[in-house]
Amino acid sequence: MKFIGAGSRPGRPQVDHDLVFTIPNLLTVVRFMGVPLFIWLVLAQKEYGAAVVVLAVMASTDWVDGYIARRFDQTSKLGRVLDPIADRLALIAVAVTLVIAGVVHWLYLAALVVPDAVLLTMTLFFFRGHPDLPVSVIGKVRTGLLLLGTPMLVLSRLDTGFSTELFVAAWIVLGLGLIGHWIAAYNYFWAILRKGRMQAHHDDGAA
Questions:
Q1: CA-to-CA distance for 139 and 130, rounded, in angstroms?
Q2: pLDDT tens figures, 92-102
Q3: SS3 track for 89-149
Q4: CA distance 179 to 206
Q5: Is-above-0.90 flag for pTM?
Q6: Could you tell me the CA-to-CA distances from 184 to 106, 181, 189, 192 in Å, in that order?
Q7: C-alpha to C-alpha distance for 125 and 172, rounded to whole angstroms
Q8: What is the DSSP letter of 43?
Q9: What pLDDT, on a 0 to 100 scale, did the predictor assign at position 207?
């Protein structure tokens, strides 16, 4: 079974329906709800094991909701917007939590936030809202790596007997994820710029 685009049916184009109450959208909401639970477990309870379980569930819903949406024709316009927002919120909120807990350096958070801040500024400037761009393969791989490396890093805080190996492996995965993050941001930057200029040209022509 393929991991990227899993559930897609050959020969059937993907259509974004005007649906709200779907299983994929419900799973996305679950991912949103996992963020405050993770923060509470790490900062208030110091329960890193339980926090890893929450991260694992959040990461799995990211794949499962996409699979269900494509396999059972439940893709929606709302899900197209909510899903990447849930991913960003989860990654940034988790990074902030880990910085506060002393697990990662603030530079890791900066490496996540700076590209997204630039893209958000461009999006608001050109579109005043969602740019409605397709998620790139690099973007999907990037998200997967970051969602995989983060629980590995948290798990390395536990006395498992191989914490050092986990710590090194986690940073290899996270490092690759950050490289993918910047590459994806670079591609989105030019995609937003091209679409924004085309839209501006179209609006000027229609005026």
A1: 16
A2: 999 999 999 99
A3: HHHHHHHHHHHHCCCCCHHHHHHHHHHHHHHHHHHHHHHCCCCCCCCCHHHHHHHHHHHHH
A4: 41
A5: no
A6: 21, 5, 8, 12
A7: 35
A8: I
A9: 54
